[in-house]
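Crash report, auto-generated. Payload:
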Amino acid sequence: MILTYLNCFFSSIFKLKRILLSLVGLVFISAYTSTAQVALMGGLNYANERNNNLLENQKPIVAYHFGASIRYYPFKKRSNISLQNELIFNQKGYKQVLDKEYVFHFNYISLPILINYAPTENFSINAGFEFSRLLSGNIRRSSETYNYFDIGLVSGFSCFDKQRISFYSKVTYGLLPMLDYYTIDKMGNFTGKIHDLINICLSVGIKINIYNEKIQFIK
Amino acid sequence: MKRYNLLNNLLLVCTMLTLVSCEGLFIPDPIDPRLPKYTENGNNVAGAFINDESWKSVVSYGFMTASDKPTIITSDINDSLVILFEGNILNHYTAIEFHLTGLNIHRFEDLILLKNRKIQLDGLTNAGVIRYDNSRDYLVSNGGIGQIYIRYVTFNNLSDKVILSGTFGFTTNDTASGNKEVSYGRFDYVFSKDSDFHIE
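Recovered output after restart:
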């Protein structure tokens, strides 16, 4: 199962749209000329969907995420400010408890781009944007039902960044509606269109620095 | 030996044909997953709420068998049309029928006249009916009042299959079970000229 998800993660990298690939390339070009820290990361998501009273008996779900992050320090005089880019396989969704429990999983490939500020040595806060593309879901034909692109605002913090293992938590507040659908009344009249269901997600996890010290791609 | 090989192969093929079934595609409605999503793809599904219970119809094909298949019956004499959706509530047979008149449907090709047509059910000339199984007797409710909206009609290239998609809702009653409200109904079926369309 882990191999399946890893395969999905790495194959999804090659499916990124050109704009995302350009962003990734830009990140690594920038990192090439500065010091950088590379880490593997993974953890849990507490996910739900914001909506305008659309869903009955809706509840959040616990899901997961994993991926890699690269943090680099482009400003020599401001070593407590860094830029962080991640590439993560991100599961979000929600559930509804009706006659039985209906669980909706949405699997994204996400590219957060964050600015980090470390007021102390062992604590830092970050904020930025997350660009996500829907890869799959547990619902049949989910790509035909739900919008495949999402942008979110990200805010979070991390502890013990300079250690081999650090901890982080962040909230991703989606900006784009996932669903474009009809409103149908009891008699079957089409009364309008819905643009709703927006991702919201609390993530907690650990990060394992591959290199314990700052690395430099070129000297 | 050759005979036994042939029999074995035949048995294998029959077993595979029995096991391989082509089911209707049930995509949960993104707002209420107890119902199928409204589609116009010929997914061979239908759903509705009958009072608080969810009624489902998912066409299933087996080896020489089929279940929950819809049927259209037209009559030249009365200019009447019966549209039958077979399904179940909690695995109990329940069918929803529409008895319609004055639509001028006499041939399979005439079904195009139903496209984007909202038909009001008055319980007399046009009616929605619930047919359900109770101790092997098929009980039928009285004619229901509401509407059926056939939103999408399209034929395939050979004009021997048609996709009909739409929505419906009506209220009815019967002496045994009292008032029944059929709500948020939707259907998306493929009808075959040879097997699903009958002229009486």
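Post-recovery validation: Chain B has a mean pLDDT of 86.
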